[in-house]
């Protein structure tokens, strides 16, 4: 009797402190602290953080399923417009934005990662395989930057310069060798990248300027469905 009440007493004592240790110890494990606004990380305001974890889990999972579907059946994307191709990214973005917790540049960079990924594994994959055939059979026909790009491992850096250079590099050979009806979507995708990454001047990321000392691309960790 005495023994069990001691145990119960100990449990009562331990549970809150364990809970506390769990919360402070693991709160940021599944997302990068640097991705969120400071106001959101304050301990006494869990609403935003809870919303972030819900988004991360539910929308992230749905987005991942959509990505998997595209990568297994890329043919389905041949008839899709950009809106259809990136619907899952837009939903994820909207959920993240509604938390009011994410830094702006993180939101838009995540959107770009997701839509660029969907574009590459979807419609662009057919163009890439055409370009690879050309590179194999007529190596002199392609521009050297395209050949380099086909051999290179995908970059983990997300900057205007890299996105712009890649678009400019690919455009002439996409025009020459890929299906003509693919060209509009290629251009539309490139324009949306320039917008999302803040390269065309329409978006200005205040919170990115606050981080001038750091490299923004290093701060944005991989999210659940992207990479
Ligand atoms: C994209 O396709 C969907 C479905 O066919 C259509 O409802 C939508 O209006 C299209 N969007 C654009 C921007 O063309
Ligand atoms: C930021 O990037 C530049 C160029 O890529 C590099 O030289 C520099 O060391 C990086 N700074 C940090 C803090 O990682």
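-> sequence recovered:
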């Amino acid at each position: 009797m005495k023994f069990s009440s001691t145990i119960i007493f100990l449990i009562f004592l331990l549970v809150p402190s364990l809970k506390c240790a769990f919360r402070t110890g693991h709160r940021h494990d599944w997302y990068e602290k640097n991705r969120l606004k400071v106001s959101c990380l304050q301990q006494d305001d869990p609403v935003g953080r809870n919303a972030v974890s819900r988004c991360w889990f539910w929308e992230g999972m749905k987005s991942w399923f959509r990505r998997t579907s595209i990568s297994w059946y890329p043919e389905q994307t041949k008839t899709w417009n950009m809106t259809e191709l990136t619907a899952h990214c837009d939903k994820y973005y909207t959920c993240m934005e509604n938390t009011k917790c994410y830094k702006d540049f993180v939101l838009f960079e995540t959107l770009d990662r997701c839509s660029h990924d969907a574009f590459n594994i979807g419609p662009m994959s057919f163009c890439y395989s055409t370009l690879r055939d050309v590179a194999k059979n007529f190596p002199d026909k392609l521009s050297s930057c395209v050949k380099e790009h086909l051999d290179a491992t995908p970059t983990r850096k997300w900057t205007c310069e890299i996105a712009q250079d890649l678009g400019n590099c690919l455009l002439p050979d996409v025009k020459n060798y890929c299906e003509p009806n693919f060209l509009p979507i290629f251009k539309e995708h490139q324009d949306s990248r320039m917008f999302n990454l803040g390269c065309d001047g329409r978006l200005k990321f205040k919170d990115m300027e606050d981080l001038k000392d750091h490299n923004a691309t290093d701060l944005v960790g991989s999210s659940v469905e992207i990479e």
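The pocket of 2-acetamido-2-deoxy-beta-D-glucopyranose (ligand 1) is lined by residues 81, 83-84 (CB under 6 Å).
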